[in-house]
Write a structure and sequence with these properties.
Number of helices: 18
Distance between the termini: 57 Å
Oligomer: single chain
Radius of gyration: 27 Å
Structural class: mainly alpha
Number of domains: 2
Strand order of the largest sheet: 1-2
Number of strands: 4
Strand content: under 5%
């Protein structure tokens, strides 16, 4: 069937006449996108899936030797444009289904592609063989792996690979990548936010009810992989939310550095980050390596008075030093600090950076996504240290979220009233979601 007569399952058609086929590929692509926008908003999802299958898969049916190539005619020999078109078509559907709360069909779209099987020994036409190989290449590409992330939220086997637990960061990175279609960015932002809110809610509910003796504690599952030890960790973190909390110390530091030169600020920042840190090796590592890197960076601006732009650039740079400097491999400092067993301390240092520059939060989460992408090629057993770091990060930043409040109530006195060491077992944690 020629391209200008593509019947749909709804009695409609994606109509491309002979004149339009002579126009630029971009114009034809826009007509396809407009068609999908229309049907995804007006048709039932099952019918939309059938239409998607008809456009991209049915024309390559090996059993139908007489069929034309349909939509594939517009691509000629341009495989990259095929990837771009197929990718955006997928995200038009995903974004609209996510908005309309029909998210279960995202998994069906993924399955539709996953079930495609190429047969290189087929006797079908050479063109059809080429286009089938294109589709197979897409399914084996990183672009398809990115696509699959949108289904992990609904897939029962979502935790088959360890990194799937941290899909929210991978999606967040997609949402900020301007190379991605706008529909992909929008859908990634929506689902990433939902996953983060879900984790915060589940952690708050688990921490509030797991200490009770009634049946309600079984209703709320631990969203972390730390087991019951997560309660001690939560209590330890919440204990720091008093007068000498990280927020208060950050506010003091911001006031102290308001009129500093950039060089003075670079000298002050490492001291702020290691303030109250009890691990001598961690302190010494930050003093030496981080300070050295900072002081040699942007020296041409040293005599400028600190401003918002320099603050943001510096905080983002420090995040790079502490996570990944090139967005591909982990930074030397990151490996060194975690190998020394300082996962939680590093998380607290990153939290302190965000408290003096909230706008660096996006940069930090993208860097976490970079680290996850790097380590996902390794097994869960090989990645326990990075997994623990991300778990500590999730918990700490959930506790300090704007819409959740955690408090500790002392349930019993310590055996030794003058004991300087606080025993978190004497406290009970309470959590509350703010309206």
């Amino acid at each position: 069937m020629p391209l200008n007569s593509l019947p749909s399952s709804q009695g409609n058609q994606l109509f491309l006449n002979s004149d339009e086929k002579q126009l630029s590929l971009e114009i034809v692509q826009e007509k396809i996108y407009s068609f999908l926008f229309q049907i995804v908003k007006t048709w039932e999802p099952e019918d939309v899936l059938q239409e998607f299958k008809r456009l991209f898969i049915d024309n390559l049916d090996l059993e139908n030797f007489n069929s034309q190539l349909g939509i594939y005619e517009i691509f000629d020999n341009n495989e990259d444009e095929f990837y771009s078109t197929l990718k955006r078509c997928c995200y038009i559907l995903i974004n609209n289904w996510e908005t309309r709360r029909k998210s279960q069909y995202i998994q069906e779209l993924i399955n539709l592609l996953a079930n495609f099987k190429n047969n290189i020994n087929s006797t079908s036409s050479l063109s059809k063989k080429i286009y089938r190989s294109w589709l197979e290449n897409f399914i084996n590409s990183n672009q398809y792996q990115d696509l699959k992330l949108f289904a992990y939220k609904y897939e029962e086997q979502a935790k088959e690979d360890w990194f799937n637990r941290y899909t929210s960061y991978l999606l967040f990175a997609q949402s900020l990548d301007t190379k991605n279609p706008k529909e992909q960015q929008e859908a990634a932002a929506k689902i990433s936010k939902k996953l983060k809110e879900k984790f915060k809610f589940e952690l708050a509910m688990y921490s509030a009810h797991s200490q009770s003796d009634n049946a309600s504690k079984t209703r709320y599952k631990n969203p972390t992989i730390l087991g019951d030890n997560v309660l001690r960790l939560i209590k330890t973190i919440v204990l720091k939310k008093g007068v000498f909390s990280y927020e208060n110390i950050a506010n003091i530091f911001i006031k102290q550095t308001e009129n500093q030169t950039f060089q003075e600020f670079k000298e002050s920042l490492p001291r702020y980050l290691i303030f109250s840190v009890q691990q001598p090796i961690f302190v010494e590592t930050i003093k030496q390596q981080l300070s050295e890197k900072l002081l040699s960076w942007l020296v041409d601006h040293n005599q400028e008075i600190l401003n918002k732009n320099l603050l943001l650039r510096t905080c983002n740079r420090v995040i790079d030093y502490l996570t990944t400097e090139n967005g591909r491999e982990p930074a030397t400092l990151f490996i060194l600090l975690l190998s020394q067993g300082h996962s939680l301390t590093l998380v607290i240092v990153l939290l302190k950076i965000i408290f003096i520059c909230r706008n660096s939060r996006s940069h930090l989460e993208v860097r976490l996504a970079n680290l996850i992408s790097y380590y996902k090629k390794y097994s869960e057993d090989e990645c326990q240290w990075i997994i623990n770091f991300i778990e500590y990060f999730n918990i700490t930043f959930a506790i300090y979220a704007d819409n959740v409040e955690y408090n500790l109530i002392k349930m019993k006195e310590a055996d030794k009233p003058d004991d300087s060491q606080l025993n978190v077992d004497n406290y009970r944690v309470f959590s509350q979601l703010k309206q």
